[in-house]
Write a structure and sequence with these properties.
The complex is a heterodimer of chains A (330) and B (326). Chain A is an alpha/beta fold and 330 residues long. Chain A has ten helices and 13 strands. Classes of the chains: A alpha/beta (330), B alpha/beta (326).
Chain lengths: 330, 326
């Protein structure tokens, strides 16, 4: 599998470290920022290109990994698929469901694989919770709470701060929990979301959502972009008829040293406290599936379902009311 | 010396309030009325006071009563107390219908007796401290609030609609709503809620999720579910996360507790070492009676918290946000 990495900003660096530790060969990296492309390419021992177009015309790769800003995903994924490449695209796949559907159709028509980086499907804490539920000993799930916070992201030319380009905290962060809910419980039935977008200082945003799943589960999702020191965490709690599963990354302290800045990441998809962290597990599975025509955990079609729910979340904010989800688009 | 009587020990908080009273020198526990004679007699024995099978003789000997009956009976007992000039500290929720709550408020007003609603969380020291800091504007403009008041399923009359007026949502909406109203002096404009029975085989709601809009563009969510399993180390929680333009505040009203691992019981549990919020509330109520002060938590506060819970049920039935009256 020859791999091309598209977009060489901060998202790409998180992936590059995973490629590096898995010793997966990245042949080429592209970014219009020449220095960014060269730095990342040098780290991976790859060739640097100023654009996807140049990369495709100059070298032969089997798969592309899209790590560019969200608003560029649709164009880059389409170009990749049209060139006959398998594509792994970072989440969110697009900013709306219609565009996502067109990409999924294109991949299926061209018999190319499309996978989306809803990386928490590979995070062992989330996977373990799903397994616990599936074992059945806890009984059926009833109330689910998820929380997710990160430092207010900046990105190239502050693209995160333009909700038209990033979808704000709802598509950047909350979508991961929506994806987890869908992965575990199926489609949502209705959703109501409120957000502080545009009212917080320095790009902070905080959103709270109430979701009813078609299987009856009632869920609450919290997602924040925050500037406080304790901003980076994920948490969930699943109450069932015979018990409860809870996780809070702030309470998981596998290794800490006082008095020095921890050089390692203690939790989250980039955790250094796992032989393989979620990014690495995801890449390994996706690359293997692309090579052997297997099914990765989050296909384009899976991501389309999640995108439909994400679109409903945005619509709920716009309408300031509850949105009932339509039947699945197939 | 303020003479206090208990009107029904149906609500478990009665036992905590009675224990607190027993230890206070400024009040006497005059007696306990309870239509359940066994429960009443046992409690009277436990707290070394008199059991009354009839309400009126007890009321005549009291300056004030603490009503810990089933929710739907709050009204009749409050009216009876008001009629003979007894001040009332009434367990939450104030009542099970708006009409009952309004009648209680009116009756106490007319009789000139104090009516205070028992929201002890206001008296938790971390909550008091939070209120002071919030009053100083420490968080800037308040944008949104995430609240939970989880609990274990209490069983008993709590799952009998005719006595409780509702399940988890009735039981656990009012504390958090009361705290938010008290912190910010703002009322709820609209309520959206999911309410259901999914955790237990009971004929009443045992879980829910509320999303509210307050005056001034602030929104809040609140989880009132009886979703703490039997093996949970505590009865539940009261948590608030308040997000403002200048910072975020987390309040855990019950955080000050030990974790105790008990092999003999095969259970892990939390044991509080916090200031006793029930004691602080009862002391406050005694001072209201003694010094003829205004109650800190009025009947209207109780009514507004009840209206929030009732609106949640209405919203869940309609599947849409509903306005909340004031």
């Amino acid at each position: 599998m020859q791999i091309g990495l598209i977009g060489c900003g901060s998202a790409a660096w998180a992936q590059a470290k995973a490629y590096h530790s898995l010793q997966l060969p990245v042949a080429a990296a592209a970014d219009p920022d020449e220095k960014a492309a060269q730095d990342l390419a040098a780290y991976l021992g790859a060739d640097a290109y100023p654009s996807l177009e140049k990369l495709l015309s100059s070298t032969d790769v089997d798969m592309l990994h899209i790590c560019a800003p969200t608003s560029l995903h649709a164009k880059l994924v389409r170009e990749g698929l049209e060139a006959g490449k398998h594509v792994l695209c970072e989440a969110p796949l697009t900013l709306d469901a219609e565009t996502a559907k067109a990409l999924v159709d294109l991949a299926e028509k061209g018999k190319r694989q499309l996978a989306v980086g809803h990386v928490f499907r590979y995070a062992p804490e989330y996977e373990a919770a799903k397994n616990q539920l599936e074992q059945g000993h806890l009984g059926s799930p009833a109330v689910v709470r998820t929380s997710r916070s990160r430092r207010t992201p900046i990105g190239w030319q502050r693209w995160y701060q333009d909700a038209r380009l990033s979808g704000g905290v709802i598509l950047d962060s909350m979508l991961h929990d929506l994806d987890f809910l869908i992965w575990c419980f199926g489609q949502p039935k209705r959703i109501l979301v409120k957000t502080t977008r545009g009212r917080g200082l320095q790009g902070m945003e905080h959103a709270l959502a109430t979701v009813r799943m078609k299987n009856g589960v009632i869920a609450h999702m919290e997602a924040g972009w925050s500037n406080t020191s304790n901003a980076d965490y994920t948490a969930f709690e699943i109450s069932t008829r015979s018990g409860m599963i809870s996780h809070d990354s702030r309470e998981v302290k596998g290794l800490e040293i006082d008095g020095v800045q921890n050089p390692w990441v203690t939790h989250g998809p980039a955790s250094d406290l796992l032989v393989q962290n979620a990014y690495e597990r995801q890449l390994q599975d996706v690359v293997r599936c692309f090579a052997a025509n297997g099914k990765p955990r989050c296909t384009g079609r899976d991501a389309l379902q999640t995108m439909q729910a994400g679109e409903a979340a945005l619509a709920s904010v716009a309408a300031n009311s509850v949105i009932h989800l339509a039947q699945e688009v197939t | 010396m303020v003479r206090i009587g208990f009107v029904s020990m149906a609500h478990m908080h009665a036992f905590s309030y009675a224990a607190v009273l027993q230890s206070m020198s400024s009040a006497t526990l005059t007696g306990i009325y309870d239509p359940d004679s066994e429960r009443g007699q046992q409690a009277a024995e436990q707290f070394q006071t008199e059991y009354h099978a009839e309400l009126e003789p007890l009321l005549e000997r009291c300056d004030a009563v603490i009503i810990c009956s089933e929710n739907s009976l709050h009204k009749q007992y409050t009216l009876a107390a008001a009629e003979v000039g007894c001040h009332v500290l009434c367990e939450k929720p104030i009542a099970t219908t708006e009409e009952d709550a309004l009648e209680m408020i009116h009756a106490c007003d007319t009789a000139g007796v104090k009516l205070e609603i028992a929201f002890p969380c206001r008296f938790a020291t971390p909550v008091q401290q939070a209120k002071q800091l919030l009053d100083q504007g420490i968080l800037g403009e308040i944008l949104c609030i995430k609240g939970t008041n989880h609990g274990q399923m209490p069983g008993g009359w709590f799952t009998d609609r005719s006595l409780s007026g509702g399940g988890a949502v009735m039981d656990h909406t009012v504390h958090v709503v009361d705290l938010i109203r008290w912190f910010f002096g703002r009322e709820i404009k609209s309520m959206y809620a999911e309410v259901d029975t999914m955790l237990y085989d009971v004929d009443i709601d045992d879980c829910g999720m509320l999303s509210m809009e307050f005056e001034g563009g602030m929104f809040a969510t609140q989880d009132p579910s009886w979703s703490r399993p039997r093996t949970f180390p505590a009865w539940g929680d009261v948590l608030l996360e308040i997000i403002g333009t200048k910072g975020t505040m987390q309040i855990d009203a019950f955080a000050q507790a030990l974790t105790v691992y008990d092999d003999s019981e095969k259970h892990v549990s939390h044991h509080s070492w916090a200031d006793n919020m029930d004691a602080l509330m009862v002391e406050h109520f005694l001072s209201v009676v003694r010094e003829d002060k205004d109650p800190m938590i009025t009947g209207y506060d109780g009514l507004q918290a009840l209206r929030a819970a009732l609106a949640a049920y209405r919203s869940s039935e309609e599947g849409a946000p509903v306005p909340v009256r004031r």
